[in-house]
Amino acid sequence: MRLTACLAAAVALTTLSVIQQSNGACDVRPKPGVKPKKYPDMLKVYENGYKLTAEINVEGEKSTLFFHEYYSFDFKQGLLELTYRGITTNILYLHHTEEIFVFDNRSCVTFPITSPPKLISPLLLRWSSLFTGNNTIFGPSVLFLSPALNPAVRMTFQGSDEEVRGIQTIKWATCLKNSDDPYEVYFVDKKWNYGYGTGKTIPLRVRHGKVVTDIMRMQPYVRDPEQKLKIPMFVGCQRLARGFPKPPNFDNIPMEFHSELAFSNPTVNGQYSYTSHLDIIRDPVNNIFSHIFAPWNTGSGKLDQQLSALPETQTIFDVTNGIQYLKVPHYFGYEPFGRGKCYVSSRKDFRPVVQLPDNTTLSLLDTIAPSYETLKNANYLGIHVVRNAPVHVYEIVTTNVPVSGAVFSHAVITYCYLVEWIYPTFTSQRNLPIRVSMRAYSTNKNLKIPYFWFTANIHDISTAMEELNDKMNVMDCYDENEASYTWFQMGFPYTDMYEEFLRYSPQIKSKFLATFLRTTSLSPMRVPRVLVDITENMIYVTSLILERPLLETDYDRKKNFDLKDHQLKFGVVTLDECLKICSSADYPDCKAVAYCGASCYTSSLSSGGVDAGIVKSTDCTTYIKNDLSKKRKLPLTRDAIRKVETAVKESKFTFTVEDSTTFVVATLVAESTDDSLGSLSMTFRGDDRFGTPHSHRRDGEELDGFKTYSLKSRLLADVDGAVDLGSYPLNDCADICRDRPDCQFFSSCLVDSQCVISTIPARTSQWIETKLQCSTFAKSVKDNFELFSGISLDVGARKAVMTINDEECARLCMVETGFDCKSFDYCGQAKDMHTVCRLHDTHLREFGEPSKMNKKSLESCMHYSKKYLYDFKKSASNKTKASARTVIGQVTAEECAKQCRDATFLCENFDHCTGPQNLGRGDCMLYEKVDGAGPFQTVFSPICSSYSYRGDADLRSFSNQAALHSNATAGGLAFFLLLLGVGIGVSALLAYGYYKNRRLNRV
């Protein structure tokens, strides 16, 4: 600090503050005839305070010391500005806190008033009075105040004297110890009309030998209008006193604000200034930080070419999960990022920055958006006025400058917060920030100004997090496909409030989103779109869910390694799908996966750890969960949806709609859900058994309707029964096989999408070949049958064969051509193993008269009845052109088929009409077949499917609702229940009762 020159020149004044009477050669006797006059008491003249301008000259020397002094008796604090040979030093002193701040334009040193530096101490005047208590003054005013405050000093009135600077004066004088020169104080003579704004007594000059102090101007100073008596900002003054207000803590308060940035670096950019705009969102609930930064602009000069090419960017940090989204809009001049793109990356460190015009970068967390841990030790500089508002000012001095790209000695960061009694009407939050400034200082001490300065003026502050999913929309970071996008719809029933809900639709959207995020633990970025559709009796809310990003970074990759033990196996999956399996909540014990070609294997690594759980393999790469996977809280979309479905089933997904007075208008309770997981692009699935979209969802290890026959294999296309269909993805290939009754097997490949189907029910290894990118699947026809819990007592069959399991038996029933197979019994404990699988041409068996049966020949079997929907042929997008005999509401197509088969009239045709808004359930219309009438005609209908019966009705009695069973049947069953005992009897009775009573009430 450059204080030495100024203070050395001022030391000539040091003896003046301790005036003592002298008996030397000094003679201050007044002229004859001059009457004594009391020395002016300036403290009474300027009772609130004063400011003055003075200069000190030494006769015979060509140097001048300039002063500006301010003092407030109200605040008991003052400021002295000294300028000597172009160097300015400031001394601020606060009597109440006993602090002295000595500062220039780049540094500040603090001293206690009770122990000031020796160079300064003689310039201080401390006294005590009955009315004002203890006081302290420092500066040239001490020269004319000391005589009035020291009762031991006798100032002799000299009368009117010569003019000083053309002004008539009166003079007092005294003699000092060890000095022959008198100490003379000149005041303006009141008889002289000086007329520049005051009639108070004004000191004009103090002379002592060759040292002449001229008071150029002195006037009252009240309430510090120039803010001269504030602790200076930007120079790093430290506080010695304690007990000041602490800075506000916003760590747990959501905050969104805009700020205008200003920057200047005279060292690099000259005197040009630059401006920009910065928007910040900090959401502590989800631990998300977002900032949008606009390019720098300047009114003069030229920006660096690279800097001027930067577009406006948005950077979003998911802090908890260590993920950064960088959004770059459509911008022609910025080639490195392309045009309108978004980039996702895994970041261990969370350090949002902005680039400054001098090509350095500024850390936002250490400047504009600091944590309380950073702020709590800041120095309190008191209340200042900033942007015409009173603010609390806090300051941090740090040698760890939050700027990269240059070397600095230190930086001073200043924070301004509104005082408690000033706050915007739109929020009740106090002490909102309105400005953050930083001055960075070079290691070059000869540099008199900051290396650069930076200011952010903050405005439009909000503590309510609204529409974050839109403000932090990261849809551009994802490819628009079914692996990344999932549409999810929820239905909320209501009555008689259609117009009200139309008005409240924005509130419904925001309340739904808050409840949805809370239920699913998803971040706002994962739900970028929410659509509200209000019908006459339902509110449908549709949301777009983005998949969990950067899943691969949760795993450590080990190439050419396989898992020693495989727990789950999946065929024809991508690496992303394989990792999702292990990360799913369905498999919490999964610790690693092996990806081999296009097959996925999981392991819990429960025995021996990682090294013991993997083996060398040239075909596989193993992925092992790392520590990041444990820290991240990123549910998969399927897991998030499952949480919502559970909440809906338990009637716990609710939210209220309120009017402007917060009166609850309605409480909405979710009733239904639907989603597009595994569906065709941008469509919802249906619950129709033959509808392809829903079958694309993969539950567990298996495709819907199929069992994995062999991984890393492919059907040979040149053998009997095999058909090479060309290139079809897995789901499409499965759809083809599912829709073809003769298809029993298919193989699919991930890379080339080769699809091969086989119509032969049984296959052996000679019909398949090894292929890493492929897998072979067998149609799971058992799912087409309904298993009746209980035991079937089989006494006969249309056909009996030997099979290895019930799946093969079901397959034989489906492909049987000799008769219409509608059910089968699987008798695993059959006496004759060639009759394990027994096929029937009815859904349930007729046993006849019990007395005629041979009890010894009866065997216990499991009965499977083909689902009734398979008795009908489907015609999609068609509706029967006739009047329905019966209409049943809100049932599935399978339930509708059963109602047609159980109808008391001859029903061979039915329609099932549904749409996305019905979430898979719809109207069932049954049509009566009139004897002699021709087939029903159909018309096009986008939401209906028409079904017609494939064959003749079996054992139907239209006068009895128990059409498939006679009284003898029931009697026979009851008889055998008694024979087999109570245990088996109860089981069989339940089975029969289950079938008899599965009827829906007609409407």
From TrEMBL:
<keyword id="KW-0812">Transmembrane</keyword>
<keyword id="KW-1133">Transmembrane helix</keyword>
<feature type="transmembrane region" description="Helical">
    <location>
        <begin position="973"/>
        <end position="995"/>
    </location>
</feature>
<dbReference type="Pfam" id="PF00024">
    <property type="entry name" value="PAN_1"/>
</dbReference>
<keyword id="KW-0472">Membrane</keyword>
<keyword id="KW-0732">Signal</keyword>
<feature type="domain" description="Apple">
    <location>
        <begin position="774"/>
        <end position="868"/>
    </location>
</feature>
<feature type="signal peptide">
    <location>
        <begin position="1"/>
        <end position="24"/>
    </location>
</feature>
<dbReference type="InterPro" id="IPR003609">
    <property type="entry name" value="Pan_app"/>
</dbReference>
<protein>
    <submittedName>
        <fullName>Putative conserved secreted protein</fullName>
    </submittedName>
</protein>
